[in-house]
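User: Show me a protein chain along with its predicted structure.
Assistant: Here is one chain, sequence first, then structure tokens.
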Amino acid sequence: MKELNSIKIFLGVISLAIVVIILKELKGIFIPLTFAIFLSFLFQPLNRFLLNKKIPVGIVILLMVIIILVTFTLMGTVVYTSVSSFVTEFPKYEEQFTEMFQELIIQLEIPVEQVTDYLKNKVNWLELAQKFSLSKIISGTMGTFIDFLVKLLLTVAFMIFIVLERTKLVKRVEKVITKDEAKHSTNVVTKIEQSVKTYIVNKTFISLVTGLISMFFIAVLGIDFAVISGLLIFILNYIPNLGSIIASAFPIIICFVQYGFSWQLIAISIALISTQMIMGNFVEPKMMGTGLKLSPLFVLIALIFWLWVWGPVGMILAVPITSTFSLIIKEIPSMKIVSAFISSE
């Protein structure tokens, strides 16, 4: 019996390793599929409402596709405009960088003549600026843009098939299981759907408000790149704990380069940190409630794991994936111990 249990554990570890390798190597397929699953959960209330109103499935799917494409098109336009502005304005920071560097050299008592000679003769600022030119950025990122477009279309395709198969799949499952099992399975799926939907909607609202408030402070204080700073804060706020710190660092660094040690730097630091603390410690817990019920330690582990598997996108998806996984294993008696580690209850 002990040998059988050892074999089961050994096979389980091997299977888990194989699954992780497959997820990592085929992330170009699994990332769009994961987004499609979560989007289908998000659109499910709208789908259910429209289908109950006898709206044809084809029109419902077309409406979802239009909403997704319009949303991503608007976001893409904002991102492109913001990045273009950043690239265009970057050369003017050359002088500020040089002056700040020279002041640092003086404070560290390094021979200024040697460093100045190196900056003038060894560093080709023109060539460095050309590397950050708009045309270079566009041509260099075209492959990434095409890859993003392909993944977007793949996500939409996956979502269409998920919506089409959802009702049929439920009917097929109901044929091979008892009514009690069907009711239990429906309850589990409903919990997952509600949890993911609540997290995505509330997190999006919180991130949007945080980004807009931060962008307002950045613009009022006359700091450059207010739009791209607000956009970064909005996107990175999806990454728990670490995202808000990384996002707030960008406008603070820009302010430091633009104004140096000044009242603007102190003001923007206080404003951004206060906004993040208020939204993260008071508003978000009120809106999120205890719906996710995940251990903070396991969330951190999940962030690191999914960063390794899927990169930055994995960090954004880490919480909803972990929440879904936690809800599923709660219903498996043999996984109660694992569930205890994941859950904060």
